[in-house]
Predict the structure.
Amino acid sequence: MSETYAFARLTLPFVSRAKQMARTIARFSLARRLYARVTRKVWPIPPVAVSLEPTNHCNLKCSYCPKSLGIDRKKGFVSLEDFERFVERIGHAKLKRADLVGFGEIFVHKEWASILRVVRKRLPKCQIVITTNALLLTRQAFDIMNECGVYQLTVSLNGANRQTYKEINRVDKFDEVYAKLSDLVRYYKTLPNRNLDLVVQLIDTINSPGEIERFRREHADWFDHKILFYVHPYSNWGGYFFDDEAEERYPCGHLYVPGISWTGDVYACCVAYPDGNKDLLLGNLNDKTLEEIYRSDRFRQLHAWNKRGELHKHVDLCRNCNSWKRIPNVYFRNPMSIGPKWL
Ligand SMILES: C[S@@+](CC[C@H](N)C(=O)[O-])C[C@H]1O[C@@H](n2cnc3c(N)ncnc32)[C@H](O)[C@@H]1O
Ligand code: SF4
Ligand code: SF4
């Protein structure tokens, strides 16, 4: 063994570990801010969570969902082959959470269980979250999710009673979904292995506070540490449903949770309706890995606007959006008059 080779063998692991540590520190620390200040660039931050859309087909047309607005979009199901490739290319990023959700219904996809297994296998440390309108949910499907290590299953009941459900979901299926849900709750309570969190969701505003409170009271015996009740804030979803032109904004946390369409398009924010607004389109996983996509000038630009609290001045979809309020502010105001407004 030559001396140079021996030296390289001994020092390289150390150098690579030191580099890795420096990168980790830089992700979160002052060093990152200094780097940004000195170079006037933004340190690329690969996302820690993604939304993955198995399909944009759906068996409902809910009044509050952008899916129902008739925005022109190619319809389809992701193939298993494409999905594996997408997840592999996402895998380069350090993901903590994958939401198997998009603008469609996962259980309409015949291969949903294989899709789930791909995520489980390729992103073993990642929390998997599934959201469904429950029309096709069965005990058998529930078992697969519970066994496969799904972290959270959200059932979007959304309407607290038959009438509101019919008004907002535009079908008279409250009794059907409710019967499924009650059966599932009873069943889950009997299982010895309760792995996933089963979340029963209503949306605020489109239910009155009284309706929500009555539902909570009447179902108190459903809920425990694994079966949870959640009231989701009604969102205008980029301004599609009502106006919200707030003057002052803090940076939007959604900008770091990309939405990935069934065709592999990566949108910087999961609120962006694919094809509805291209300002937030960063690239496609058929061409690049997620990490490469996040090193693009476009993302750096969006991130810089966000740190100035100015996304809404530059991105059409953000102008009227109220979804940024759903994520609390983790920044503090820069006391100096130069540099980004939020640190
Ligand atoms: C777009 S859906 C797709 C998943 C599935 N089809 C479902 O309905 O659960 C994802 C989640 O967004 C919620 N959602 C849709 N439109 C909303 C809105 N305007 N405000 C708040 N949540 C909304 C749905 O209730 C659901 O929980
Ligand atoms: S909220 Fe879910 S179920 Fe309703 S239309 Fe949108 S995607 Fe379909
Ligand atoms: S303001 Fe709305 S559309 Fe813009 S990044 Fe935030 S959540 Fe997405």
